[in-house]
User: Fold this.
Amino acid sequence: MKILVCIKQVPESNKVEVDPVTGVIKRDGAASKMNPYDLYALETAFRIREQLGGSVHVISMGPPQAKEVIREAYAMGADSGTLVSDRAFGGADVLATSYTLSQGIKAAGDFDLILCGKQTTDGDTAQVGSEIAECLHIPSVANVVELREVTDKTITVAMDLPDEVEIARVTLPCLLAVDKDIFMPRLPSYVRKCASANREIRILSLKDMDDQNPDHYGLNGSPTQVQRIFPPDVSHDQETWNEPADILADRLSEKLAELRFI
Amino acid sequence: MPEYTYKKLTGEDIAALQAIINDDSRVLFGPALSEDYGHDELGGIFSLPDVVIRPKTTEEVSAIMKYAFENTIPVTPRGAGTGLVGSAVPLEHGILLDTTLMNHILELDEENLTVTVEPGVLLMDLASFVEENDLFYPPDPGEKSATIGGNISTNAGGMRAVKYGVTRDFVRGLEVVLPNGDVVEFGGKVVKNSSGYDLKDLIIGAEGTLGMVTKATLKLLPLPKKAISLLVPFPTLKMAIETVPVIIKSKHIPTAIEFMQREVIEDAEQYLGKQFPDKQSNAYLLLKFDGNTKEDIEKDYDAVARLCLEQGAVDVLISDTEEREDSIWKARGAFLEAIKGSTTAMDEVDMVVPRNRVNTMVEFLHALQDDVDIRIKCFGHAGDGNLHAYFLKDDLSDEEWEKRLNEGMEKVYEKAYELQGQVSGEHGIGYAKKVYLKQSMPQDSMSLMNGIKAVFDPKNILNPHKIAQA
Assistant:
């Protein structure tokens, strides 16, 4: 099976600084890492490859330094990687990002299965996966918590809906956005890292795309108007309870229920 | 246990103590006394005090000690009660001084790189406080909810000892209430000190038998900005452990070197309900490196990674993000609780052997399971020779457990002695390990210890029957 995993480079810390004047997230100089949710998608791909054979490819969109996350995917076991990178792609919203990635995927090859993480830790929209599938005219399932059965033709998954878990069998090719904890992601291997140090990373720019109209990409292709970006409020409220254990246990469970944590 | 003569606490004494504290909610006796004050985490003994006092100031501690001294009433200091050798158990009852309300961070001195705290401050609170200020308190014992007073009293160590040392290396000065109630200061903010006997160092590790720590000035370091761990699978535990001296010799010293086996990892997975990121091997080394940039750390770990592969490691796995660090170190942190959860009762050995003898000891422990027919789990600080072995009761009868446990313990400590090791690496002696200390220490050393105790505490009221005392 030919599997493609979409990965993204995100800021390392979730304490992201927002420029108070422009409202844009400050990315310069900030350390980066692979979007943690993408690690689950990669692990899912490796498990399927172990079971059915085939290959795992990764694709990312971003500036040239996003090659780092492709190298990291190599160290985890990916076979090849593509970076979709062009100044014309900058400033893309969800729609333009999804469209650009779908164009990149078409240019990168034919895949039986496309896997995405649930969302990214910087954008947090959880929409890019489904929109890529729309652009590619293939079926997609989000919030996948379990793989039930994988064959050459179909894949059966459990998806987490608000009130129930639904089991669905999907025909390949398709796109799945997998949830956190579907599998514990493996760690990058030093041995693989050394062995893949010189492996090629294919770069795709606007001229490699099927649709080369610059109006469909980047800021031009983005209908979203961002009014304001601001960090969410953080609360440090604390309550101290000093009571016998049995009373505390009841109070705690009531409090958790009140906060809708349980 | 030899008998010492103490005054039995009367209603009058309690009234006098209440008058000193002047807040009845901090003087607990009778039905208000929780069972918890009669034991620690794993001492295997139970003995309740007559009264628990929760002082808030040095003056209160001093006044209570003075009263106890004049009336010959035994006093036992207690922090969070997380000790593992029964040190905080009041064997002669009397007064238990609970330090947990003395939990204030008093001063951060950024010019001298010190922090001054009360003894009841919890290790986790201290660590997060200094880190918020870009500073670093390296001692890192597994029990983060222990108090700093307790850490000082046992000279607690932890995983970072390989690179940074133990609690003793980070104590600059102590305020101590002596058994007669006098308040003294040992050491200070000074970096160097050659002014006579180091009394501060006597208090560290004394488990509250010489004086009661009421304030501590601790040394801090600039906070390393980044940490990366390597999880290194080996075909056998022997190969893993034999790699440790090679790493030490390479001079690229990691912050921590831990060893772990698959069975303990599986216990932790079950306990946490979370998978460990690797399962390809039976034995692992876990190395941690810290530094200021990813590039600096990579330079260090690159050499060590190559060394591990040369020594036969299956691979070297890199943990370089918060999520990855969590997936490994949370499991490592849960080992003790996970093992506890896998059996009915347990007892532990915390011996320390020279670093190049760790493998001999681990193999000995492995063989000992069949020898005394008891389940033993082992993991620990391979980098500093401090091994934690846990004897598990499972479904043995009390009688059989006691018999096999004692036989096993005897053999372990005998072996540690033979390998030029010591009884305790970081948990202390307290009550539970006294026998083994006596067996392994020359009589001269025991006499010196008891002599020191007699000078500090002529009436023997402070935490009697602990460490070197019969």
Notes: Residues 2-216 of chain A form a domain with the Rossmann fold fold (CATH 3.40.50.620). The mean pLDDT of chain A is 92. The two ends of chain A are 40 Å apart (CA to CA).
